[in-house]
Amino acid sequence: MHRTRLVQHQVTSGFINVVAENHYLPAFWAHPEIGGTFPALVLIHTWLGLTGQMRRQVRRFAELGFYVIAPDLFEGEVAQDDEQGRALQAKLGEAAIAKVSAALSALETHNRVNRRVGILGWQMGGELALNAAVHRTDLQGAVIFSGKPDQFLTLIPASETPILAFYAEKDSSASPEMIEQMRSALAKSAHKGEVVVLAGTTEGFFNDESQAYNEQAATQAWEKLLDFLVVKMKLDVSKRHTQLD
Questions:
Q1: Cβ contacts of residue 231 below 8 Å, gap of 6+?
Q2: Domain residue extents for the chain
Q3: How far, in whole angstroms, is CA 224 from its chain's centroid?
Q4: Closest alpha carbon to 239 in 39, 55, 87, 47
Q5: Cα 35 from Cα 49, distance rounded (Å)
Q6: Alpha-carbon span 123 to 167, nearest angstrom
Q7: pLDDT single digits (tens) 121-160
Q8: Distance from C-alpha of 41 to C-alpha of 183, rounded to nearest angstrom
Q9: CA distances from 168 to 125, 174, 218 (A)
Q10: Does residue 236 surpass a pLDDT of 80?
């Protein structure tokens, strides 16, 4: 996986259980070891579940200076292939939205969070992140990877959340026409969100454990989302004083 250009924190991470909005929610959590308050991120996994690769993403964002939580929407189940993933997503159903909301609430009320909260999601998680972005008014940013946009197109122009969306050139979640419709909808929003299409890629280009992984495209997306998060989340780069090997 590509390296960050920013100095990083030492972090603490592990499995936790969150109680918020009347939900008991298993999750993976990581945060900087130094004191103070930080902006926070909720990371939403694909239909494969809370995999080891996803847990590494949680730690990776915590190293940048975020308090991070990835709710385990499947509560311990992990898919071995896309067919199992689709079945787990179908089983989850509408409960996913409430679980994502509970994870966001847990961070918003945490005493080490500075009340600036954002959300990132991949594929199934991208759709859930987009749903949160268009329905909530308390998020400072949303990053979407291959989130199916069609049901949100009429809501995006009124969204109060800055949105950065990444799609593969060959992306089953959105046709080129659908992506252009999303780009047009974002252009009408107050924050003028952005859609980035990565040439020569298919879904999963950001996942270094996937056959679809594309290092050049993943690095390009990483640099772009870093710039977005530093600005929208007002990340305090002065706190980075510990360089990791």
A1: none
A2: 11-239
A3: 14
A4: 39
A5: 31
A6: 10
A7: 999 999 999 999 999 999 999 999 999 999 999 999 999 9
A8: 24
A9: 16, 9, 10
A10: no
- Which structure tokens are listed for 48? 């494969």
What's the pLDDT tens digit per position in 17-67?
A: 988 888 889 999 999 999 899 999 999 999 999 999 999 999 999 999 999
Rounded Cα–Cα distance for residues 169 and 148 (Å): 14
End-to-end CA separation in angstroms for the chain? 14
Task: Locate 242 and state its tokens.
Answer: 């510990």
Residue 121 in tokens: 């999601």
DSSP per-residue string spanning 140-168: SEEEEES---GGGTTTGGG--S-EEEEEE
In CATH, which superfamily holds the domain spanning 11-239?
Alpha/Beta hydrolase fold, catalytic domain (3.40.50.1820)
- Position 59, amino acid: R
